[in-house]
């Protein structure tokens, strides 16, 4: 089996397990609910099949939905960010994306932060909109998106820093 495939399978399982075991139990001040499992979509290899990304994103969201009893909200949010990911990559990385020369882990800190922030906040906004399903709660939705998104971005940056292997 290809090393990249094995690496992605292990990342999928690890992120789902820590989401279910640790981060689903965090609800700080009613606004902070971290969802670092989106890191799987962020770190999915750039040149790989887009249909595979959409399918695995759906499986990722569906798996989290099954354990959160959330009725498909995570699956919808994951598929949405997987769908818009190529356009965000192209707008942030430009020609490097065109030539498949982008690795999020090796990108500059500013580009990496911008990419992760856009995907995480899009995911969280859609997730909390679907959770509330009421536009009269827009202030609550925006607060929850802001605080949870900021904490999730911080966790994603920490995970990338801790688990990125420096090769010489």
From TrEMBL:
Record's keyword annotation contains Membrane: yes
Keywords assigned: Membrane, Transmembrane, Transmembrane helix
| TM region positions | 12-32, 38-64, 113-133, 145-165
Q: What is this protein called?
A: Rod shape-determining protein MreD
């Amino acid at each position: 089996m290809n090393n990249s495939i094995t690496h992605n399978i292990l990342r999928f399982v690890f992120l789902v397990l820590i989401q279910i075991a640790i981060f689903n139990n965090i609800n700080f001040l009613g606004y902070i609910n971290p969802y670092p499992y989106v890191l799987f979509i962020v770190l999915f290899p750039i040149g790989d099949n887009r249909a595979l990304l959409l399918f695995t994103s759906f499986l990722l969201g569906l798996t989290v939905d099954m354990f959160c009893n959330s009725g498909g909200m995570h699956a919808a949010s994951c598929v949405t960010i997987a769908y818009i990911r190529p356009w965000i990559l192209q707008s942030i990385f430009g020609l490097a994306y065109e030539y498949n020369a982008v690795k999020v882990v090796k990108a500059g800190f500013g580009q990496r932060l911008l990419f992760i922030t856009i995907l995480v906040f899009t995911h969280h906004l859609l997730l909390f909109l679907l959770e509330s399903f009421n536009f009269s709660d827009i202030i609550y939705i925006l607060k929850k998106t802001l605080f949870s998104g900021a904490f999730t971005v911080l966790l994603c940056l920490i995970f990338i820093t801790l688990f990125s292997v420096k090769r010489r």
